[in-house]
Amino acid sequence: MTDRRIPLAELERGTPFEQRHIGPDAEARAKMLAQVGYGSLDELTAAAVPDAIKSVEALRLPGSRTEPEVLAELRSLADRNEVRTSMIGLGYYGTFTPPVILRNVLENPAWYTAYTPYQPEISQGRLEALLNFQTVVAELTGLPTSSASLLDESTAAAEAMALSRRVGKVKDGVFLVDADALPQTIAVVETRAEPTGVEVVVADLSEGIPAEVAERGVFGVLLQYPGASGAVRDLGPVIERAHELGAVVTVAADLLALTLLTPPGELGADIAVGTTQRFGVPMGFGGPHAGYMSVRENFARNLPGRLVGVSVDADGDRAYRLALQTREQHIRREKATSNICTAQVLLAVMAGMYAVYHGPDGLRAIARRTHRYAALLAEGLRAGGVEIVHGAFFDTLTARVPGRAAEVVAAALASGINLRLVDGDHVSVACDETTGRAQLAAVWAAFGVAGDIEALDAATDDALPADLLRADSYLTHPVFHRHRSETAMLRYLRRLADRDYALDRGMIPLGSCTMKLNATTEMEPVTWPEFGALHPFAPAEQASGYLTLIRELEERLAEVTGYDAVSLQPNAGSQGELAGLLAVRAYHRANGDTGRTVCLIPSSAHGTNAASAVMAGMKVVVVKTGENGDVDLADLHAKIERHGAELAVLMVTYPSTHGVFEEHIGDICAAVHDAGGQVYVDGANLNALVGLAKPGRFGSDVSHLNLHKTFCIPHGGGGPGVGPVGVRAHLAPYLPNHPLQPAAGPGTGVGPVSAAPWGSAGILPISWAYVRLMGGEGLKRATQVAVLAANYIAKRLEPHYPVLYTGPAGLVAHECIVDLRPLSKATGVSVDDIAKRLIDYGFHAPTMSFPVAGTLMIEPTESEDLAEIDRFCEAMIAIRREIDKVASGEWPADDNPLRNAPHTAAALGGEWDRPYSRTEAAFPTGVSAADKYWPPVRRIDGAFGDRNLVCSCPPLDAYDD
Prior knowledge:
- The protein is α/β, with parallel strands linked by helices.
- The protein has 32 helices and 25 strands.
- The chain has a domain at 529-772: Aspartate Aminotransferase, domain 2 (3-Layer(aba) Sandwich).
- Helix 6 packs antiparallel against helix 15.
- Belongs to the GcvP family.
- This is Glycine dehydrogenase (decarboxylating).
C-alpha cells in the first residue's frame, strides 16, 4: 500500500470520460502500435495524414468535464426551458409515452444502438416492429402499402410531390397545395420544388379546384385532413375533380383523427403522408419523429425510403427483410428521384408499439376524448359570444376575435398555456391526449368567457360530420390485441430485442457507418421533459436553454470543422447534402452565374451525393476513380476543362470512400476553385479528421456532418440521424431558414429543408454532451485511436485477405477494405457467405460490396477495446481457414458452413447429414456456448420477397401450409 498523499484536486477530477469512450487503454494501444509499426499515436497520424491538410493548432474547445459535471450543466440548461402546455397544434401535440415503451425502447440500447437492418437474419425483432408500424399506417390511411417511415411530415409531403410527378399522367403543370396545409409543409414543398422547376400554387380548395389553375394543368394535389385550421371537410369532390384533371392526390392526414374519420384511401387519395409523433413520441422541440407515407398498390415500387417485406428463409419459414432494395440510391445514383437513405426507425418502433400497447379500442378512446375536449371548448366559447370559424373539426378549432387575438394569446400564456396566433383576428387552439379540464378552463378565461364543463357535456354534440365517420374495422391482427397487460407488453418487447444484434451485444464493424459508443450519460437528458416536452413553435423565450445548447453546438462544430457557420436544421445526412448544395446554387445565382449547374462526383461516392445533386437542380458528371482508389486527377482536370463555365461544385468524400487519406485533396480543391466552382466535402468520414484536419481550412466550402456517426447520436436501427451543414462565410447567407422561427436561419436563406426550425432538436443534447465530455484533446485522441484500430485490423488481416487500398506510408484512414474477389473466384465462396458466417461467430458483418463489389469495408471505431477487435480478427482468420477447406475440396462448394450460414438452433436438431459437424456449424473457433448468439432465422430469400411483396402484418394462417 502506497503512503503517497494524492492531492485533493486530483481525486476530485475523477476518471476522465475519455477513458470510458475510447476502448483500448494505454497498454492495448502500445500493442496495437507495435503491430502497425509506430511508437505513438502522434507518429502514426503524422504518417497517415498528408501534411498539406494537417491542423497546426489545437481545437479551441472548452476543456473536458466529468460525467456528473456535464449532467449538471445539461440540467442547468434544461432548467432554463419553460415547459408550458402547448395547444399550438400544427402537427405537434402533447402525448403520453407508455413507461414500458419509454424504458424498454427509447431508453434501451438493444433498440437504440442497432444498425439499419441490411443483415435481416439478425434484425428480425426491429423488422417485425417496423412491419407493425407499416400496418398501422396502411390500415389507418386506407392505402395498402406503407414505407418503414420517412423523416417528418413536411419532407414526406415533398417526397409525395416528387412521386406524383414521376408516376402521374400529367408531366407538366403545377403542384397544387391547399392553403389549409401546415405552413411548414408548404414552405418545405416550395424549397424542394424550385430547384427542379416545379411551380407550386397555393390556393383555397375548400370550394374546389379553381378553374384558372385547372386550365394550366395539375400533376399533383396536396390536401390536409384535418386542415391546419382544424377544419374537417369531405375531400371526396376535390379528389374526384383532381383525378379528372389527371392529377395524383396526396392527403396529409392526422393518424389519431383517422381512428374516427373516413380514411384518405376511401376518399380516393392516391398517397397519404403525415407524422406519427402523437403516437407516444415526445415533441422534443421538433423531433425526431417518424414521418409516414402510404400509397396505392400500383405505386408500391416507387415508394421513397425503406419498405419492410415478408419473405422466407432457407427452411421456408417466414422471415422479414427490407424489400426492393434495388431502389436504394447507391444503385440508382443520379437516376434516383429521392435522396432518402435513412428512416426514423427508433421513433417508428415507438409509434408502432404505442398502437400495439393501446390497440384499436384504446386509440379510438384517446381520439374520442381528445375530440370531446375540443368540442366542449368550442361550445363554451360560442356560449360566451366567440365565433368558431368551422363547424366541423377534430382536435383543433379556430376562433375569430377581431382585433383581440394577441391579447387572448397573451392571457393564455400568463396561465401557462401556448396558443397559436394565426393573425390579428384569429386564434387556434389544439387539444391532445394530455388535455384536461384545467386547460379548458384556462383557455376560456383567456378568451374572457366562463364554461361549465358538466353542463356543456350534457348539451353538446360532437363536431365530426356524420357522413365522414369511419365505419370499417382496423388493426385486427392479433399483435394489436394480445399485449394488454404490461407483463405481456414487456415480454413482447424483450422477445423482439433478443432476436436482434446491436452494439450492446458486440462490435458492428461497418465501414462508412461509424458504430461507436453512445454513452448513457449522453443519452439520459433526451427523455428529460425540459427537453422532450417543448413544442417547436413555442415562444423562443421559453426555450432559452435549448437555444443556448444549439448555439454552443453550432459554434463547437464550426471549430471542429473549420467552417464559419453551421445549421442544425437538416434531420438526416441526405438533407444536409441537399441543404449544402442549395446554398451553393443560391450563391452562384446571387452572383449572376445561373449557368453553373454541373456537379462533379467521383464514381466511388455514396449514391446520395448524386441524388441530392439532381434534387438541387444540378447535372451530375462522374469523375473516374484511379486504381489506387484516389480521384483520377487527369479525368478530373479533363472534366473541369470541359465543363468549367458551367461547373457549380465538386462533391468529394474525405477521407475517400475507399478509406484512405488522398494526398492531392488540396490540389483538387484548388483546381475546382480556379474554375469558379465550389467544393463540397462529404462529412461521412469526419471521424478520421476531428482534431487532425479541418475541411473548412484545407479547401472545402461546405460539408454536411453526420452527428449519428462522428458525434455519437445512435443509429437507432436506421434512424434517427442529424445531418448539420457547415459552410464558409460566403455561403452562410444561404443556409436553411424557417417561416415560423426567424432565429432558425438567415433571412436570405433557401427556405426550410425540415419541418421543424432546428430539425431533430430533441437529440442534440447527445452530441453537445459528447463534445463537452471529451474536450478538444479527447476528440483528437478518439480520432487517432480510430485510425490506429483500422490500421491494426488491416495489418492483422492482410496475410489472409488483401487490403484493397492504402494511402500515405501504406496506411489506411479509419476504415479498410478487404478484397474477397480472388477468393470468390477461386472457391465460389461469396461476400454474402462470409457475412452470414460471421453471424455464427457472433458478429454483425462489415459493409458489404460498397464501394467495391465483392469486398468488405471494416471500421472498428475508437470505442472497441482490443479484446473485441482481436475477437473479430480471429473470426475472420478462422473463416479464411474454412474457405481453404472449400478450396481443397474437403468441404463441397455447395454444402459447407459458409454457404449454409447462419445456423439456427432449430437447424441443428434432427438428422444431420452435413459434411461438417454440428459443433463446427454453431460453435466455431472462439465461440462460447454460454454466450452464443442464436439467429432466429436461416438465410433469407430476398428474390422471393421481392416477387411476393407483403408489407403489412400477414394473417396468421398465411403460413399454415
